[in-house]
From TrEMBL:
Family: Belongs to the sideroflexin family.
Claim: Nucleus is one of the keywords in the record: no
GO cellular component, as recorded: mitochondrial inner membrane
NCBIfam families: mtc (TIGR00798)
Keyword RNA-binding among record annotations: no
Annotated keywords: Amino-acid transport, Membrane, Mitochondrion, Transmembrane, Transmembrane helix, Transport
Pfam families referenced in this protein's UniProt entry, alphabetically: SFXNs (PF03820)
Membrane topology designation: Multi-pass membrane protein
Annotated transmembrane regions: 254-275, 287-311
Protein location: Mitochondrion membrane
The protein's name in its UniProt record: Sidoreflexin
């Protein structure tokens, strides 16, 4: 099978379950365009974060994996449709880690990021935060982020538990310190009107979370920088371990973690400051929290696929920019690596 065409139905599946090239009745599908097309990646990641995959049973997952394995080995049962193959690939990609081939724990899958993360976002954006409540919500947020980063990392090399704990402590400490520091500064800003102070306080979580997210990704995946990550040739064979590719992977992931909270922590406070002035909500104050929660949920749900689509998960890098020993070990001009999510 090559990129110039094929008569095969359904997806071409790799062993790890990560993003691969698909062919449908001789046409190159959008999965192959993902590397260069933002819209192609967006369509892919909308599937990956589909919360319905959280309810897939163990039996159904095994059926999907078997179906894809049968297709890969040319043993596909008669009557299997393209749609069944696409659905099987969607389920496998949402649940199985592409490097380890193991299930990702439900709350830490990308499909669980919005359902499990939204309550924390709502808590972070609640008005009139105290120092204690700020610490608690920032701790919960970075704890969840740390586990998501670790669960979706490039896992071609083992990560010691000690490094996981160091990253976790560093991320939580940075988030709490920044958030508390900004809150204290705002409270001391006596020149600001109460309304202005409240709006600014609501916006405090963004710089705190964005800076902490950078620390979180860097610290949780620090071992990749010291040991490198596997880079693959056109046939999926490991050429070597590259620290340069690891830097690219972590930088790209960290950038997405800055973009992700931008709309989540900026838009809801602005929207709520307008909605709270509506006569209907002023006379029905008990609806403020449900409306606030809905605004956070919608914003989070729209932001996540956009942020993680900025770069392909299986990224490519020119051999000429990698370590000399890797360049000498292959004739390929471009190699592939798992950026992580």
């Amino acid at each position: 099978m090559n990129s110039h065409g094929s008569s095969l139905k359904g997806p071409h599946v790799n062993n790890g379950g990560g993003p691969v090239t698909f062919f449908i009745r001789g046409h190159l599908s959008d999965s192959a365009v993902k590397k260069g097309s933002f819209l192609g990646r967006l369509r892919h990641f909308i599937d990956v974060i589909d919360p319905s995959t959280l309810f897939v049973s163990e039996k159904r997952l095994k059926e999907c994996v078997k179906l894809l394995d049968d297709y890969k080995h040319g043993e596909l049962p008669p009557g299997v449709s393209d749609l069944q193959l696409w659905e099987a690939q969607k389920i496998k990609q949402a649940i199985i880690h592409p490097d380890t081939g193991e299930k990702i724990f439900m709350p830490f899958r990308m499909s669980g990021y919005v359902p499990f993360g939204t309550p924390i976002v709502i808590g972070l954006l609640l008005p009139n935060q105290t120092v204690v409540s700020t610490i608690i919500w920032q701790w919960l947020n970075q704890s969840h982020n740390a586990c998501v980063n670790f669960a979706n990392r490039n896992a071609t090399k083992p990560t010691p538990t000690s490094e996981f704990l160091q990253g976790y402590v560093g991320a939580v400490t940075s988030a709490v310190s920044i958030a508390v520091g900004l809150n204290v500064l705002i409270q001391k800003a006596n020149r600001l009107s109460p309304a202005t102070r409240m709006i600014i306080q609501r916006l405090v979580p963004f710089p705190a979370v964005a800076s902490a997210n950078i620390c979180n990704v860097g610290l949780m995946r620090h071992s990749e920088l010291s040991e490198g990550i596997d880079v693959l040739d056109d046939n999926g064979n490991v050429v070597g371990s590259s620290k340069i590719a690891a830097r690219h992977a972590i930088t790209e992931t960290a950038f997405t973690r800055v973009v992700l909270p931008m709309p989540i922590f900026v838009l809801p406070p602005i929207i709520m400051s307008y909605l709270e002035r509506l006569r209907f909500l002023q006379s029905n104050r008990r609806l403020l929290l449900p409306v606030h929660s809905l605004v956070c949920l919608v914003t989070f749900g729209l932001s996540l696929p956009v942020a993680i689509s900025l770069f392909p998960q299986m990224s490519q890098i020119e051999v000429s920019s990698l370590e000399p020993e890797i360049a000498m070990a292959t004739d390929c001009k471009v190699l592939t690596y798992n950026k992580g999510l």
